Amino acid sequence: MMDNNVKTAMVGTPCQILAATKINEYSDKTGGSSIDVKIGLFCMENFSYTYLKEFLIDKKIDINDVKGFRIEENKFKVILNNNDVFMVPLSETDSFKRKNCDICLDYTSDISDISIGSLGSPKGWSTVIIRTEKGKEIVKNAEKENYFETKEISEKGKQLLERIANQKIQKNLENINLREEVSRPVIYRRKISDDEIEEISSECQFENLESDVISEGACVLCGACEYVCPIDIVKIDDRKPQKFGECKEDCHACYYACPRTFLSKNILGYDFEEKPLGDYLDIVSVRSSKIKGQDGGAVTSILMYLLEKGLVDNVSIVGEDEDISWKPVSRLTNDVEEVKKAAGTKYSTVPIGFKALEK
Ligand SMILES: Cc1cc2nc3c(=O)[nH]c(=O)nc-3n(C[C@H](O)[C@H](O)[C@H](O)COP(=O)(O)OP(=O)(O)OC[C@H]3O[C@@H](n4cnc5c(N)ncnc54)[C@H](O)[C@@H]3O)c2cc1C
Ligand code: SF4
Ligand code: SF4
Ligand code: SF4
Q: Which ligand is nearest to the CA of 17?
């Protein structure tokens, strides 16, 4: 399916990082991917592009006049090109929030090499959670090469991070319980062994993904099912994945890859509520002097470092559609200028993450 020598660094939300992990963990079933470095973002929730645009129209804001979005102090802020700021309490974003986010238990991309967000650090800095030895080497060497400066996160910042991660988990566990009272089990929250995964998944095809995930409002639109399908019969529109044709006999790739089917203890050995920030080696605050990012520019400067030093061949980023303002588009690139252009958070989901990966 892919060139084994190509190395890709991927940036994504926790659910996309989980999908990338599953694609590689079950590579004998899914064909694997070139993803070698996983940079996960913190993520409380995400939004539908179509409904976000409608919300703005309702508020008499043209999305073409928007310079950026921020979520701070429990408010959703829209920064306009003339620097005016329109804001609403986060509780008023329900009309464009994606419902699948209500059952998500991962705030800090726990199974990445490096996780990055803003919470816990001063304005203009990124909070960087270093999780793996690979991640540690990258951060250490990129700092040495002057891509950014680091400082230890303050105790207060770390406590805030733990508190908010825990809040997300507790709130969404309640949502899961409420859903399960009237609907089918939210299966990704129950960790099972690899043997059980094999036993269940080897019986499942796209129809099971539809009944267990898509029709349950659990699909995160990550694009993993579309990417792994060996006969390209899965297509994703703005709302959900659909199948056009008959499944290949004995293929179960999409069920294995989906981040909202069963999760094995091998991928995540503990329950999210036990460790709100996951396992990590260190947490630091990072500020880049090279670029202006959403926060401290940590993501972009790490991607630039990886490309410029030849540590990866390409990076998977989420940039903006050339013609449609703020519509996120996933791209695979080795062009540093394009990476810089993709800095900044696009607060909406479309089928992103894997679409750009070459098979
Ligand atoms: C949906 C969403 C919700 C978030 N919620 C929180 C939160 O609750 N708390 C918090 O502290 N941080 C949150 N973040 C992360 C935060 O907004 C910044 O992305 C992060 O702090 C990195 O900043 P930076 O300056 O280092 O990144 P930059 O250097 O600006 O780079 C940002 C990178 O993010 C990628 N990206 C942009 N939009 C998306 C997207 N929609 N999906 C996947 N990748 C994307 C781009 O490829 C770019 O490389 C969220 C991010 C997203 C996408
Ligand atoms: S499901 Fe929603 S809240 Fe969870 S990581 Fe994905 S986009 Fe973020
Ligand atoms: S052939 Fe069917 S089961 Fe296999 S990946 Fe495609 S949609 Fe899924
Ligand atoms: S159904 Fe497909 S797009 Fe939706 S979460 Fe699962 S793998 Fe991702």
A: 2
d(CA 109, CA 38): 9
Residue 295 CB coordination number (10 Å) = 27
Domains identified in the chain, total number: 2
Q: Which atom of ligand 2 lies nearest, measured to the CA of 220?
A: 1
Q: What is the CATH number of the domain that holds 82?
A: 3.10.450.750
298 lines ligand 1 (CB under 6 A): yes
Residue type, 278: G
Which protein residue's CA is at the shortest distance from atom 2 of ligand 3? 247
Question: How far is residue 148's CA from residue 297's CA, in Å, rounded to a whole number?
Answer: 9
Q: Which residues line ligand 2 (CB under 6 A)?
A: 13-15, 43, 45-46, 100-101, 104, 106, 220
pLDDT along the chain (359 residues), means of 10: 79 95 96 95 92 91 90 89 91 89 96 97 97 98 97 97 97 95 90 93 96 94 94 87 96 97 92 94 95 95 98 94 86 95 87 62
Counting ligands in written order, the one closest to the CA of 228 is: 3
Residue 214 Cα: closest atom of ligand 4? 1
- Structural domain range at position 300: 8-46+98-341
pTM comes to 0.96
Q: Which residue has the tokens 């207060």?
A: 156
| DSSP per-residue codes, 28-46 | HHH---SEEEEEEEP-S--
Contact present, 344 and 293 (Cβ < 8 Å):
yes
